[in-house]
Amino acid sequence: MRGFFLTFEGLDGSGKSTQIRKLAAHLERSGHAVTVTRQPGGTRIGDRIRALLLDSRTERLDPVAELGLMFSDRAQAIAEVIRPALDQGRIVLCDRFTDSTEAYQGGGRRLGSNPVLRMHQVMCGGLNPDLTILLLADFDRSLARARRRNDRTAASGTNEGRFESEDEAFHRRVYEKYREIAARESNRVSVIEGDQSIEAIHRQIVELVEEKLRPVTTR
Hints:
By secondary structure, this protein is an alpha/beta fold.
């Protein structure tokens, strides 16, 4: 039986990582086999691509080259992690997928949706999530949290602040592109809006996921 592919999306600082950890723990307690991964990264090659893409010292990277690197990372992750896990019947929780590329490169970098969606078909073999959780917390608070987090990690020697250093207009374009994706893909994308408590968001996610999993596990 093919597994279940669940992706998490949203601006940095929206709480994705926390919710993925909590959902993974919940699913494992319920007896499911779970694989957690992220993009960019999640493989040895992907981690090298991630270091280049997110390091604020990476300068003058052309938006089209950036798009290509994102999909190179994704193709490797699909081949090495995602498809094998799905073929084993596992639930795959992925922090970001093609929706992020459409939002950040298509919206933020102004490349548009069409090049991203064409690349998706070629590089991802048409693999689409069964469910996407889009966390749309308050825009200003999300961006402030992400920048504070990157300041802390930079102090410890990790530099992943390249996108957070973009101006507010860039992040607004990303935010609005996410809304556009959610409207277009309403059967797949479930939106959780606003600044709610971690537990309140977790309960909503569990309800959404269990509803989607029910027909899969009873087949």
